[in-house]
Amino acid sequence: MLFHYHYWTPYLEETEKFYKKQGFKVHQRLGKYKGEFQSFNPPLDWDDFRSKVILFRIIEMKKGLVNITFGMGKRVKFDHIGFLLSKEEHDQVCLNAQALNWGVKITERRTFITTPYGFLIELQTHTDVIELEDRTFIKRLKILTKKKGLENDLEKLFGTPIESVASMGGEKVTIREAVIEGLPDRKTTDPNEVTLLNEVGI
Question: C-alpha angle 97/101/106, rounded to 5°?
Answer without folding.
Answer: 50
